[in-house]
């Protein structure tokens, strides 16, 4: 899909790349996930259609996914090995390359909104843990009790994982991450990503999602990227920035740049997916896993959600 006309806008979202297939998801689960994706896509699309900014659009879309317990972010985040929910998020604006990120937060209802507050109201880019929660309260970012994030299904998944003799985290990449990228009518791009991380993660592990340049990046000179997958390899590849750099410096199309970087990640033993929007509004959604929850819409009327 390409959008190069003046005042055109486009948006893409993902709800995580992973091992889901038609054999592992029944019709009801497929319908429920597609409905959740459509709701998030509609939230972002409404912002852009009304002339709103790319930053507003990705914030709106990701917040809807964070509130949906079907996805691994916010409510419905996976559990750590110790039985807690630790949340990470990041956002970046392509016009100024301003960015905000948070990690290991446990009391913020929508981590993407906290990441945005860090970007817009704080002197730093990246806050973590208790300090990030203090910042949230100082800037009126809504909080939530631990019970808001914890769901019975995610707890069951943790218990299943811990029952395996050789399993202590979700190496099978089953439950993903969420993210959005957008290009607004003014020609600016933005990206946002949010996650609960890996089921059974330990020792305060943080993946690529909140790391600017690894799981999230935006630059009006190239485009915007949000990643999902095996975070350690995405970090080592500097995946999101690498995709933007290839687009900006050697003129690669979004899908070509995305595939090249995913090939590098694959050579490191990693899998996953990326969503990309170029500065011209062209969208790519590329993944090396069996499926990726995803959607895209633009000012021409396109509106598509998919899983496999």
Tag the structure with descriptive keywords.
24% strand; 308 residues; alpha+beta; four-stranded antiparallel sheet; eight-stranded mixed sheet; 34% helix
What is this structure, in a nutshell?
With 308 residues, this protein is of the alpha+beta class. The protein is 34% helix and 24% strand.
**Poorly predicted regions:** none
Distance between the termini: 18 Å
Strand order of the largest sheet: 4-3-2-6-5-1-11-12
Oligomer: single chain
Assess the beta-strand content as a share of residues. 15-25%
Order of helices and strands: EHHEEHEHHHEEEEHHHEEEE
Describe the biggest sheet?
8 strands, mixed
The best one-word shape is globular
- Helix vs. strand class: alpha+beta
| Helix percent band | 25-40%
Q: Would you count the extended β strands for me?
A: 12
Number of helices, where a helix is a run of at least 4 consecutive DSSP H or I residues = 9
- Gyration radius (Cα, Å) is 17 Å
Mean pLDDT: 94
Question: How is this structure best described in words?
Answer:
It is a single chain. With 308 residues, the protein is an alpha+beta fold. Helix content is 34%, strand content 24%. The protein has 9 helices and 12 strands. It has an 8-stranded mixed beta sheet. α2 runs antiparallel to α3 (111-121), α7 crosses α9 (254-267) and α8 crosses α9. It is globular and about 50 Å long. The relative contact order is 0.20.
